[in-house]
UniProtKB/TrEMBL annotation:
<dbReference type="GO" id="GO:0002188">
    <property type="term" value="P:translation reinitiation"/>
</dbReference>
<dbReference type="GO" id="GO:0071540">
    <property type="term" value="C:eukaryotic translation initiation factor 3 complex, eIF3e"/>
</dbReference>
<dbReference type="GO" id="GO:0071541">
    <property type="term" value="C:eukaryotic translation initiation factor 3 complex, eIF3m"/>
</dbReference>
<dbReference type="InterPro" id="IPR054711">
    <property type="entry name" value="eIF3a_PCI_TPR-like"/>
</dbReference>
<dbReference type="Pfam" id="PF22591">
    <property type="entry name" value="eIF3a_PCI_TPR-like"/>
</dbReference>
<protein>
    <recommendedName>
        <fullName>eIF3a PCI domain-containing protein</fullName>
    </recommendedName>
</protein>
<keyword id="KW-0396">Initiation factor</keyword>
<dbReference type="GO" id="GO:0003743">
    <property type="term" value="F:translation initiation factor activity"/>
</dbReference>
<dbReference type="GO" id="GO:0001732">
    <property type="term" value="P:formation of cytoplasmic translation initiation complex"/>
</dbReference>
<dbReference type="GO" id="GO:0043614">
    <property type="term" value="C:multi-eIF complex"/>
</dbReference>
<keyword id="KW-0648">Protein biosynthesis</keyword>
<dbReference type="GO" id="GO:0003729">
    <property type="term" value="F:mRNA binding"/>
</dbReference>
<keyword id="KW-0963">Cytoplasm</keyword>
<dbReference type="InterPro" id="IPR027512">
    <property type="entry name" value="EIF3A"/>
</dbReference>
<feature type="domain" description="eIF3a PCI">
    <location>
        <begin position="1"/>
        <end position="90"/>
    </location>
</feature>
Length: 91
């Protein structure tokens, strides 16, 4: 979906996967899904969806893999800072 320019739909699909009951047990595949979800949120400026996704991921990962939660949050913050820096350079 991303490659054909449907970023909004891709974002909605990833959020549905993270929120679904079938995926309540943390696995290593959740981490790249969250990274892509947050990357799309930064690109599309959807901070509320990012907040919802992080909240769901916290629920899934905090007992099993707190380190994964930390890595996802740090990557999200770095993406936001990078985007802000690039915007300042362009202005």
């Amino acid at each position: 979906l991303i490659e054909v320019g449907r970023k909004q739909r891709a974002l909605e699909t990833l959020l549905e996967v993270i929120k679904s009951r079938r995926h309540r047990t943390w696995t290593i595949t959740h981490e790249p899904l969250m990274e892509k979800l947050l990357e799309l949120c930064v690109d599309l400026k959807k901070n509320q969806i990012a907040k919802d996704g992080l909240h769901q991921y916290k629920t899934i990962a905090q007992t099993v893999s707190a380190k994964s939660l930390e890595l996802v949050i740090m990557k999200f913050l770095n993406q936001g800072e990078l985007r802000c820096t690039n915007a300042r350079k362009e202005a």
